[in-house]
Amino acid sequence: MAYVAGDTILDDEYNTFVNSSSSPYGYNHFAGTGSGAYGLGQTHIATVTGGSTTITAAQWNALFTAMDNIGNHTNDTLTTRSQVSAGDTIAIKAAVEADLATLAASVAGGCVNATAISESAELQSSASGTRWNDNHTVEQSITFSSNDDLRHFFNAGGKMRMKLTRNGNGGGSATSKDSSVDELITGMGNFDLGAQVSTRSGSTETLTTDGLANGVADLGTGYTTLMLLTQDSGTYTSMTLQVDAKTDTGDYDTATVVTMKLTLTDADATDGEYTDGNTDTVDQYAEFIGTTDVALHTMNPTTGEGLASVASILTSAEESNNGGV
Fold first, then answer.
1. CA distance 251 to 142
2. How far apart, in whole angstroms, are the C-alpha atoms of residue 205 and residue 239?
3. Whether residue 29 has pLDDT greater than 80
4. Which of 56, 90, 108 corresponds to the end of one domain?
5. Per-residue pLDDT for 305 more than 90?
6. How far apart are CA 37 and CA 155, in angstroms?
7. pLDDT of residue 203
8. What's this model's pTM, rounded to 2 decimal places?
9. d(CA 208, CA 231)
């Protein structure tokens, strides 16, 4: 059908705006249950039957209100439209199809401009031993009660977040290795895994492998490297920090578990202790790294800017923690 502003809207035209599951997508497909990158878990709007001009003011207004609510969450600017009243001619309004396409694209991108997002409390803390060398590798996961919950969480702008801190030193004062680790931690910042992309809030150090274009929708059952960060300014420029991720099924339409792995590697082969008699004022543990801790959080969509309901995780878990070798 040709959508011409000012014409009386027909039921099949209205139903396309509401329920189309192919481009141009209808409201229910990108805001309701949807599939894949589409779907936010909102209540579906009913389609109409019974004739070509059975659209009521209440039905038309319900679609406009629902679109505005999603636009508030995605922070998209939509065409201004006034509500209609009973007895008015229910005519096609300008740019409805274009605005629906804008909202659908924002949802498909993972609502990256949404600000109604709240960081959870720390869900998991995976600390190394008191001091370590070689590597500290941690795997942490989040589980959803259903695939719909997983997709609606990430499609609405939800993220799985890892933070890395160094909570101690090598036994005395902070060492050059500790300082090099600190620079990698700054370079990573908050690492967020979203629906379609990943991000780090830091910007320093060398991004040796850039897999940040990958989100949960891109993951398989084997690990995908999202980032390999290499130390570029400290004493130990062979140090690396790597983040990988996978899902339990490798399919965004069936997965319920997302697992992230962080590996902090000290490739320096000098790992001896300076014991009594040969310390020569050097810290006994100068070749070691102090306690490091990987914290798991989620960035949770909220109902603060338009959504009537949001999905959340069911559980989180520490899958492994080598504790530093």
1. 16
2. 11
3. yes
4. 108
5. yes
6. 6
7. 97
8. 0.91
9. 10
